[in-house]
Design brief:
single chain; 328 residues; mainly alpha; two-stranded antiparallel ribbon; 14 helices; 8 strands; elongated
Length: 328
Amino acid sequence: MNYKGVPCPVCGKEFQEGDDIVVCPDCGAPHHRACYKQQGHCAMQQELHAKGLAWKNPNEAANPTSSPSNSAEDSHILCPNCGLFCKSQDETCPNCHFPLKKQASPQSGQQVVENPFEGQPSADSELNHMFEAIYENDQIGRIRAKDFIYIIRKNYTYFLRVFKIFSQHTKAKIFNWSAFFFNFFYFFYRKMYKIGALLLGFYLLSNIPSLILSYHMLQQSIVDPMLLSSLQFDFTGLEGLLLTSQLFMYARFGVSVYCGFTANKHYYKHCQEKIEKLRSVATGKNGNEYYQTLSFIGGTNLMSVFLVLAALIGLMMVASTVIVFMLQ
């Protein structure tokens, strides 16, 4: 749908090429994104919504030969990387420059998702079909690949391939090195907050014995500074605490390995639950609004990683202050 020259119902200015336009999911009326945010709702509520009418594009009325489009989803593309509404003719997203158009199959005409494993040999010939092209309308389990693209956003080509394997082989294990190295930070980054909180809680509790031992080591270092170079600390009476600290160290490594082996499957179930929950409450709504909401609740959250890191640093500073206070 061409909105060029059509006045915005809020500010009255005509839409121009490159304008950031959003479309009302109920009546289809276009607005400048800033105007829609300022208004807080569609400006055509009384004129159209109350009467159950749909907005009509004057450009289409002036050019009856053009093919009509009754769906906002037909005229706009929601960038799977940043969630911005883009025009259907855009090759890349104006905001993040993400490629919006993939090479399509001449037979099906569907949008094809790139194969990140292309050129890599597969040891199991039975798995070869899993590394074929995935199209946006392909079913991965009970859900279309397109829905997964919008909720994954970052690095979706890799996860689509992983999810396809899980949907066909429930016992498959695909190691996630990011989850192995970053542990609970990775789960917060991928918005799996419950699992991230549990892992963070274990990390904090498992470090309590080490914190107590650090207090005793610091206390002995004040009496004999040479212990800082020789590390010959006296742990008499603290053998149980020392053993517990060592066991927790191995346990933390084991948890990291567990995260590496299970993070992808946790993320697969997480995405499935989010999509199915949104489907249950989005019945009858415009498809464009559904994908916009899906993109909003999906993606990644780098800010949560920084907040958790800041909280850990704050706890370390508080613990250090308490230890110093106890030594005085």
